[in-house]
Q: What sequence folds into this?
């Protein structure tokens, strides 16, 4: 194409020529991308928090007597669903119980024998598979009873699903809003250049030729908006992250000490912001310019 | 060559009006033709058919060797490159000077830089605007603007120039110069020119082949004598 350079230059010139519209488009994109970015990060953090919380659930596997400790331990260790095992002997169990009910410790002292069975506290890899794990543990020889936080598991499952749906809906809705805004702004830009478009159309410019400068204009604004949105997102998120770390004690007790560190994902995020910005902008441009060059 | 065979254009959305009714005409290469008629006679519809901006309800249209009923959509831009358009509102791009307005057409059609430079200077010279080549449209008179539009229409060396009311927005005295310029292009370059106008005085003055439309029908297709000889020649 002889005039490819010319088309690229026209795209850049057009940004300056329509500077007010370009700025409005830039602002709309920055806000839109920032909202999408922060929503995605928040949702990812929520997911991590839920995973952390769900990792803390423990299944109690009570044994009939201490003779079966080794065989049950071996079976649990070989089970692929199991993440961690800790053994609590009847003596340790009783001690804990006494500590827990200290004001009524005379009750325990008067017991003729230790009623606490040998117990394995087991955490599993995936809370979704708690039913399956409990079923398998109950089948083990020497196991007397299995107690699992079923309600908690189903609550976590529901919460996780709800979060996933909310995240998807929010991201799609914000993406669509962005696309509509960009498409309308480009339409105004195309309207302001309708003479140019009509001449191009009538003198035999191909649709691709007509669209390239708009495409370059849209992509450039999209990439710049992506970069700026990323920078704002980084500042906002890192400040929040620092705030959480400064009060780590409170958060760790809530099991929220594992959230994403922006530094770990910043280049990936920058690439995503710029690509999404460029694609949204270019798509909006192509849709709206296409309406002017039909026929 | 432009040929219409039994062409009807029926606008359903504006009360079922026939904008053109069973019209047939043939304009040979190198002809200069006036198309006249009152507002709503079907002149614009005729031009839109020729430039393939409109598809007839029935009938066939052939322009510059293309059968417009069968032309593929992706070929339309290439077909349009064989036509030069001149509009009554000039349609110049305000932020481009004379040179760039003319060069724009050639850039759009992907010509080389060297060709563009030579061709643009040639056509600007032909319309006698060499000393105004760096001027912007807001610094030009109506007549000058229309000459830029003519230069732009000629730039791509089209086989056919369509001038849609080219004198409607300029001084009546300058109108004659514009028509003369178009006639000169027709005569020297053998370019077919179709000029739509509602100014009877111009047609009566220059004469030549004239097609008159009324209510979507061709009511006259013949030669008028004209004050200057009736052969569409220069004065």
A:
């Amino acid at each position: 194409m002889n005039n490819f350079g010319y088309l690229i230059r026209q795209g850049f010139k057009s940004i300056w020529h329509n500077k007010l519209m370009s700025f409005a488009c830039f602002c709309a994109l920055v806000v839109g991308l920032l909202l999408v970015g922060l929503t995605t990060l928040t949702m990812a953090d929520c997911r991590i928090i839920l995973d952390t919380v769900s990792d803390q659930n423990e299944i109690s596997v009570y044994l009939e007597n201490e003779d079966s400790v080794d065989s049950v331990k071996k079976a649990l260790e070989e089970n692929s669903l199991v993440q961690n095992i800790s053994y609590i002997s009847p003596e340790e169990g009783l001690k804990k119980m006494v500590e827990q009910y200290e004001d009524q410790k005379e009750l325990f002292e008067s017991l003729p024998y230790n009623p606490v069975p040998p117990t394995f506290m087991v955490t599993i890899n995936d809370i979704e598979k708690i039913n399956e794990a409990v079923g398998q543990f109950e089948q083990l020889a020497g196991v007397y009873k299995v107690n699992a936080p079923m309600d908690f598991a189903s609550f976590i499952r529901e919460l996780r699903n709800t979060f996933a749906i909310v995240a998807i809906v929010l991201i799609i809705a914000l993406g669509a809003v962005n696309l509509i805004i960009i498409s309308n702004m480009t339409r105004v830009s195309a309207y302001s250049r309708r003479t140019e478009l009509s001449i191009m159309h009538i003198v035999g410019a191909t649709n691709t030729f007509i669209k390239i400068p708009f495409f370059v204009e849209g992509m450039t604004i999209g990439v710049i908006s992506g970069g700026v949105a990323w920078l704002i997102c980084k500042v906002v998120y890192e400040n929040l992250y620092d705030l959480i770390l400064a009060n780590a004690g409170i958060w760790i007790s809530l099991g929220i000490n594992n959230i994403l560190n922006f530094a770990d994902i910043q280049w990936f995020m920058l690439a995503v912001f710029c690509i999404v910005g460029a694609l949204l902008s270019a798509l909006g441009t192509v849709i709206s310019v296409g309406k002017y060059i039909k026929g | 060559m432009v040929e219409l065979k039994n062409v009807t254009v029926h606008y359903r959305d504006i009360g079922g009006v026939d904008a053109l009714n069973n019209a047939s005409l043939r304009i040979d290469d190198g002809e200069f033709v006036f198309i006249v008629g009152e507002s709503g006679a079907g002149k614009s519809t005729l031009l839109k058919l020729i430039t393939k901006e409109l598809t007839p309800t029935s009938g066939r249209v052939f322009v510059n060797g293309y059968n417009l009923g069968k032309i593929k959509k992706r070929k339309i831009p290439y077909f349009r490159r064989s036509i030069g358009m001149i509009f009554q509102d000039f349609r110049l791009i305000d932020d481009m000077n004379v040179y760039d307005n003319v060069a724009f057409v050639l850039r759009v059609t992907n010509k080389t830089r060297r060709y563009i430079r030579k061709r643009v200077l040639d056509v600007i010279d032909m319309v006698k605007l060499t000393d105004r080549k760096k001027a912007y449209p807001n610094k030009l008179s109506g007549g000058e603007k229309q000459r830029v539009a003519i230069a732009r229409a000629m730039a791509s060396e089209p086989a056919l120039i369509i001038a849609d009311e080219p004198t409607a927005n300029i001084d009546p005295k300058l109108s004659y110069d514009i028509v003369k310029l178009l006639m000169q292009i027709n005569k020297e370059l053998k370019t077919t020119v179709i000029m739509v106008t509602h100014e009877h005085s111009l047609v009566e003055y220059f004469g030549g082949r004239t097609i008159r439309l009324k209510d979507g029908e061709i009511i006259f297709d013949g030669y008028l004598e004209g004050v200057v000889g009736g052969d569409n020649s220069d004065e």
